[in-house]
Design brief:
Helices cover about 35% and strands about 30% of the residues. The chain has 2 domains: about 1-30; about 35-175, Lipoprotein like domain (Double Stranded RNA Binding Domain, 2-Layer Sandwich), CATH 3.30.160. Strands 1, 2, 3, 4, 5 and 6 form a 6-stranded mixed sheet that branches. The protein has about 180 residues and is α/β, with parallel strands linked by helices. The protein contains 3 helices and 6 strands; from the N terminus they run αββαββββα. α2 crosses α3. The chain starts with a helix and ends with a helix.
Length: about 180
């Protein structure tokens, strides 16, 4: 009987401690421990050749949304305690899976890879340990070369941006 009471007591203490720690902003289960209260994310510029004209605006909106959903930071226009800025610097299509056979005299590939590169700078005005400047983040997604790029481009960009944003988030506030 006593072991059941101890187990129940430990369970209740664990639940209360977890609720307290995650609720007060000391720690969250995303691995983010932030003492700052404000964040400013400037519009990322489009320095990439090619790609859709709204490439940088799409990235800026997605990264702002991601930080707001995964932290308790208040997004401010300028001079946040945490500051993030940068540019989309690369948008590149590359053939990656050449097809075999004698009928392929034209050198077509079965897959094409879309690679997007973003350079970001991060400043933490309360703790400069994790600051970085012009750090390059890149990711890619492959698609069937028989598909028209315009039909899959938005989906590819979304997949690539999701990974790049996660990488920037981890490099800045998640401390991974």
């Amino acid at each position: 009987m006593n072991s059941k009471i101890y187990k129940l007591s430990y369970s209740i203490i664990f639940i209360l401690a977890t609720a307290f720690l995650s609720g007060c902003g000391v720690y969250s289960f995303t691995g983010v421990a932030i003492t700052a209260e404000t964040l400013s994310i400037q519009t990322f510029y489009n320095d990439a050749e090619g790609g859709p004209p709204d490439l940088s605006q799409t990235f800026t909106n997605k990264i702002r949304d991601y930080y707001q959903q995964n932290t308790n930071l208040t997004l401010v226009q300028d001079d946040g305690e945490l500051q993030l800025e940068g540019a989309v610097t690369g948008y590149k299509l590359t053939p990656v899976a050449p097809t075999a056979g004698r009928d392929n005299e034209s050198g077509l590939s079965a897959l094409t890879r879309l690679t997007i590169t973003v350079k970001a700078s991060y400043v933490n005005t309360t703790d400069d340990t994790f600051n970085f400047e012009n750090k390059s983040f890149s990711f890619y997604s492959d698609y069937d070369s028989n598909q028209n790029l315009t039909t899959v481009e938005n989906q590819l960009i979304e997949e690539i941006y999701d990974q790049i944003i996660l990488d920037i988030f981890n490099a800045s506030v998640a401390n991974w």
